Amino acid sequence: MNKQFHESDIARTSCEDIKKTSIVHELLGDGELDSSASTRHNILRTLIDNMPDYIYVKDTQSRFIIANIAVTRGMGAEVPDGLIGKTDFDFYSPELAARYYADEQKIFKNGSPLVNREEPVPDQEGNMRWFISTKVPLHDDQGNIIGLVGIGRDITQRKRSEEKIGMLNNELESKNKELESILYAASHDLRSPLVNIQGFSKELSISCKTIRSILDCPEDYRSSKAQIDTLLNDDIPESLGYITTSATKMDSLLSGLLKLSRLDRAQINIEPLDMNALMNNVMENVIYHAKEIGAKITVDNLPPCLGDALQINQVFSNILDNALKYLDDSRQGRIHIYCKSQATQNIYCIEDNGIGIAPEHQDRIFGIFHRLDTVAKKGEGLGLTIVKHIINKHKGKVWAESEPGKGSRFFVSLPSV
Ligand code: ADP
Questions:
Q1: Claim: this prediction has a pTM higher than 0.85
Q2: Which residues line ligand 1 (CB under 6 A)?
């Protein structure tokens, strides 16, 4: 079981007293050094004081015996002597100091070093910094452990870079997944109109061949004319109709993809947004349509958030357009816009009493070209994909909760001002 160590476990000693202890005599001599020992001592002192790493020696009670300038400054003492005789309890929180003390007592007990331990340590201003520490037992001539030598290196910069690389990697991974799904959906959705175009082009070519062969040998004029009439009045227009519809569909899919790629490349200009003004603006574009279908929209007072005005306008326009589009014709449409504020985020909600969305589709509706009602309601299946893209770029979140037959709630979480 881990014993919790306290400052009171350690005998208090002054700097002068500690210099009289046997370990210091052992390490630094009896005060009077001959000239070669003094030179060796100076060389070592110069060496450790010019190292950027924390270098120190502690006795078996974890009291500093030797400290270089880096550790002295790092711990907030004026001169190395300011550290001598003191322990981590004089500089760190009791919990942190007790942890260091326990680690060191384990080294003294087991004789095995602690190597390359990475841990967060608060600096003098209370900011967290990262250190990599190695502590090795120090032996006397008889092999008894008389203390430890510690080396600590500030790796805060490296840790920050690693964190940043980690975050960028996660971003890249999710971007890759998104691209993969766009590619999959795009190729899948582009394929069906393309197959139609190929199929009906073949039909057209067969019709042309048939007309050619009829014209080449006009034996039975009557039946030939009837055949050509059917081809010209029914078969060929039908094929052309399918080809045109499919080409229009492909055009709309491709312009959708272009819209998305433009959106990805667009600069975002994050600023505090007056959400009441922004929502008024969004409402202006839908108010006529809402009146026409007898839908009632109510908007609460909305707190400001941080975002790009144009893009956030687009987000709420798309969600509000959908709320109106997917209302239930059998009852009066009601849409309510409100916000719940949290510590650093505002969660805006657009709630409707429309047709609702089945649970299995609630995540998928944000995928490109994903549409549930492909017959009654017109759309490209891109509105919510655009919403998701914009909100991701703002490091926000968007999600839906819905009950089929009752209505839906679309939530958008954005950083508060
Ligand atoms: P579109 O509306 O063009 O089909 P969206 O990406 O905007 O494309 O929406 C994707 C699908 O999500 C829609 O086809 C619809 O089935 C569903 N949906 C979106 N909003 C709502 C809503 N408020 N109520 C019910 N279904 C919705």
A1: no
A2: 318, 322-323, 326, 352, 354-357, 365, 370-373, 379-385, 408
